[in-house]
Design goal:
single chain; alpha+beta; 5-stranded antiparallel beta sheet; 8 helices; globular
């Protein structure tokens, strides 16, 4: 076993999680304060989220700038985004730095909301390593890396002394123009001077997040690995409810967004169609359990795109604001939304329902699955709660 994987297990044992672990959902019993302080735990929880888009693999190998004929000309000289293996990937890590454009950037097509994200979990360290090693397969990439450095991280596996920020992946997206102010207010920072540390959904400068998008080399510069565009973004809100709720009452933020720059007309075409699956845990003692689902920013859905998902499960649509579902043995879960969405193009279903025995009683676990086909954007806040009188 690689040394860094051994180190990860030692860390995990030290915090006492493995000793009683029975299922992956046990991580949701870690309180928000500890998740905030321990990125290994936070990223482990975020990794429970499942994501896919219907075009998770694609044929086109590269995209380019589109400034009249300039983009076509510079592409001949290698200035382009080059796919690593023609797939979109899930990547979970912790933000090391951010770049939020100012409003004056509106006149440019590259209005990118940028993050450098570095991983702590072994699987995602391996993903980042794959990206950095791919850089060395390109002439421009090799030229940018001194030969003596090619045998060091991030081009080789880390050890216990390695600074994991070396394995950061740059992640970029140009969000929809007409939705930027709404995204900035309700979802995540898109217009400076707003920053992660000031935004009420984060309240910290280096949160842990999950992203899903194209795994590419940016050879417009020096062929460094990126997730560009990232089209799905999710995280746990670990700041607003510390100490006020039961530990398993989590708050999730999720979003599916299309890159609207003119650079990725093949990789990020409209509609964007896929599914986001969010885990939940509730106590089984006939409590009134609820998922409070706030629709935030959206600008249209596609029934034609939605049909390509071909989902066999019984779907519940969002044309009403409250629906009740039986989970197991007379336990019910209520889905409450802050408004109805008519016309289809988005729905939900529950899956993987199971029970888990713990010292303080029985719990029910499962997934809330949200299939959708969007024009440009859909974001939501999902609060897993016990109804309190």
């Amino acid at each position: 076993m690689k040394l860094y994987k051994t180190l990860f297990l030692v860390i995990f044992l030290a915090i006492g999680m493995i000793a009683h672990a029975q299922s992956p959902f046990d991580i949701l019993f870690v309180d928000d304060e500890e998740l905030k302080e321990n990125p290994v735990l936070n990223e482990t929880a975020l990794d429970l989220v499942n994501v896919y888009l219907v075009d998770s693999t694609y044929k086109r190998r590269s995209e380019r700038h589109r400034l009249f004929m300039v983009g076509a000309i510079i592409r001949i000289f290698g200035y382009r985004w080059q796919t690593i293996d023609r797939r979109r990937i899930k990547f979970v890590g912790t933000i090391n730095s951010e770049r939020i454009p100012g409003r004056d950037s509106d006149r440019f097509t590259e209005y990118d909301v940028n993050y450098d994200i570095y991983p702590h979990l072994p699987h995602y360290i391996d993903v980042a390593l794959e990206g950095w090693q791919a850089r060395l397969t390109k002439f421009k990439g090799r030229k940018a890396v001194p030969e003596d450095n090619r045998d060091e991280p991030p081009y080789t596996a880390p050890d216990s002394t390695t600074d994991l920020t070396k394995f950061r992946l740059h992640s970029e997206l140009t969000p929809p123009v007409d939705s930027r102010d709404a995204l900035n207010a309700f979802f995540y920072p898109t217009v400076a001077p707003m920053r992660l540390a000031r935004h009420p959904n984060f309240l910290e400068s280096k949160p842990s997040v999950g992203v899903y998008g194209n795994f590419v080399l940016d050879c417009n510069h020096r062929c460094h690995p990126e997730i560009h565009p990232y089209e799905v973004l999710w995280w746990l809100d670990v700041n607003r409810n510390q100490g006020q709720l039961d530990v398993y009452e989590k708050t999730w933020h999720v979003g599916l967004l299309r890159d609207v720059s003119n650079r990725f007309k093949h990789w990020s075409s409209s509609p964007r169609t896929g599914e986001i699956s969010i885990p939940f845990v509730f106590k089984m003692d006939n409590r009134a359990n609820v998922i409070e689902w706030d629709h935030q920013v959206f600008n249209g859905f596609s029934n034609e795109g939605f049909a390509t998902l071909k989902i066999d499960n019984n779907l519940s649509y969002l044309d009403v604001t409250e629906q009740k579902h039986e989970l197991l043995n007379g336990e019910y879960l209520t889905i409450q939304t802050n408004g109805s969405i008519l016309g289809g193009g988005i729905a939900y279903y529950l899956s993987d329902i199971a029970t888990e025995e713990r010292a303080d009683g029985r719990y029910v676990t499962g997934y809330l699955n949200i299939p959708m086909s969007i024009k440009d954007v859909y974001t939501a806040e999902l609060r897993m709660r016990e109804m309190r009188m």
